[in-house]
Amino acid sequence: MDPKRWLSFEQPIGELEQRLESLQEQEPESPERTEQIRSLRRQLATVTEQVFNNLSAWQTVEVARHEKRPHTADYLRLVCDEFVELHGDRNFGDDQAIRAGLAKIEQFKVMIIGHQKGRTYKERSACYFGCAHPEGYRKAMAKMKLAAKYQIPVVTLIDTPGAYPGIGAEERGQAWVIAENMYEMSRLRTPIICVVIGEGGSGGALGLGVGDRIAMLQHAYYSVISPEGCAGILWKSHEYKETAAEALRFTSANLKRLGVIDDIIEEPLGGAHQDHQQTALRLKEYLVRTLRELAPVSIDDVISNRYAKFRRMGIFLEDATAESGSDVSA
């Protein structure tokens, strides 16, 4: 493992990997060294499992933002058997923060749409670090409507810190287009599967986040606001980002328990950034299984179930005595 890739809590893993690499480079081979390598590998697997099974909310954010974590472009290459990209919103331009196109995943034809962050600084600048403009969301909706016209399921891959907050984006209707996307997705007459693959930040994520099945990769997060933004508003300082992360309950396990998401896609040992191929395989298996489940359902039932699904979110209980205004101490 490249030391530059180690997150703060990954140091024990990095040290074991360095020791393992050092042993593997030694010559000549011997039975003792072979046994040492086997022992170190077992120890490495145990430590990695312990670390990643006990991540804090903020550590989950760090993993979701890892520079080597697979992006939409990686999944398009590894998951899709075929992919033909479609460009532009027919109104203003082609936002590179949103990629969209027709794809084939095993026997299923789908319209796949996702946020793209980029790897190099040049790519990230072109993609605005995954923060889409209104034309990106309009492009996404245009392709979704095209999919509905030809009865093709839609798959969205969510990975954004939030929609682009610049003046130009606001002038072109950023808030309106996100709301419009949510409305149109709620009644789109084709199955929709949404997967949070990294960051699921604020309205930027919701603009692609209304579907019949909502899943998250194990170490992704899905939140109304970034922990830094929450800390800045509530505590007036980013120093409280870890406290904010815990309070927001945005990890996959919490959101599954709260009924916000339907499924969690388990990541390989050490996180998706350690094994792109295995992560893509698990995502592909989930998509194929879910597409197979949704295929026989009538479109009227699909839309009815989608509506009911979001109506169930946010249920809470009120104290009957408080509602009636009676004295609890009486």
Plain-language structure description:
The chain has 330 residues and is an alpha/beta fold. The protein has 2 domains: 44 residues, no CATH class; 251 residues, 2-enoyl-CoA Hydratase, Chain A, domain 1 (Alpha-Beta Complex). Helices cover 48% and strands 15% of the residues. The protein is built from 15 helices and 8 strands. Strands 1, 2, 3, 4, 5, 6, 7 and 8 form an 8-stranded mixed sheet that branches. α9 links the parallel β5 and β6. α1 runs antiparallel to α2 and α6 runs parallel beside α8. The termini are far apart. The C terminus is likely disordered.
Key attributes of the depicted protein:
eight-stranded mixed β-sheet; globular; disordered C terminus; 2-enoyl-CoA Hydratase, Chain A, domain 1; 8 strands; 2 domains; alpha/beta; 330 residues
Structural class by secondary-structure content: alpha/beta
What's the number of structural domains?
Answer: 2
Mean pLDDT, to the nearest integer, reads 90
CATH topology heading of the largest domain: 2-enoyl-CoA Hydratase, Chain A, domain 1
Shape: globular
CATH class of the largest domain: Alpha Beta
Task: Give the number of DSSP strands.
Answer: 8
Q: Describe the main β-sheet briefly.
A: 8 strands, mixed
Q: How much helix is in the residues? A: 40-55%
* Beta strand %: 5-15%
Low-confidence stretches: 324-330
Spatial separation of the terminal alpha carbons: 65 Å
What would you report as the Rg, rounded to the nearest angstrom? Answer: 22 Å
Write the CATH architecture name of the largest domain. Answer: Alpha-Beta Complex
- Please write the string of helix (H) and strand (E) elements: HHHHEEEHHEHHEHEEHHHEHHH
Query: In the CATH hierarchy, what is the superfamily of the largest domain?
Result: 2-enoyl-CoA Hydratase, Chain A, domain 1
Number of helices: 15
